Backbone:
């Protein structure tokens, strides 16, 4: 069974979705590939307390690594990409090509980018830490201003949305 709750954050409201009590989605408003709200299940603010506390600590600058249990629903390749995203250290970035190489698929940078864009658990699974090979801030499901904000925030730089 799916349920959801909503929390405020510096990047706008975040909708946290739980499947059978385990976090399965963190979505920003107007996020690309955001499921229809009807698929989030009923609102239930009694779930996802750990995720809310960890996200609040992250945005307060007190948490650099999440350990909330997750359910990642996707293809095998997508789940491999999303698992590898969690290995990118706080405040650091890698390119789509580097991520493809880490997966043992050096020619799959476009497929990595597509899987990255379909990440259902933004921020906690840090797809914002993947950039273009030239260092450019290429696509982000939450929008480039949010990606810029998150990267600046993690680097301790002034972060404006």
Residues:
């Amino acid at each position: 069974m799916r349920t959801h709750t909503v929390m405020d954050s510096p990047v706008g409201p975040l909708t946290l979705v739980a499947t059978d009590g385990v976090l399965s989605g963190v979505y920003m408003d107007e996020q690309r590939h955001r499921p229809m709200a009807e698929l989030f299940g009923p609102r239930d603010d009694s779930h996802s307390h750990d995720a809310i506390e960890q996200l609040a600590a992250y945005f307060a600058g007190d948490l650099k690594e999440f350990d909330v249990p997750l359910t990642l629903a996707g293809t095998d390749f997508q789940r491999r990409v999303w698992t590898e995203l969690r290995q990118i250290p706080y405040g650091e970035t890698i390119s789509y090509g580097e991520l493809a190489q880490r997966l043992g698929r050096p020619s799959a940078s476009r497929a990595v980018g597509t899987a990255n864009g379909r990440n259902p658990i933004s921020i906690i699974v840090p797809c914002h830490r993947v950039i273009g090979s030239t260092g450019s801030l290429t696509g982000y499901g939450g929008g480039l201003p949010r990606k810029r904000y998150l990267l600046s925030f993690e680097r301790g730089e002034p972060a404006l949305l």
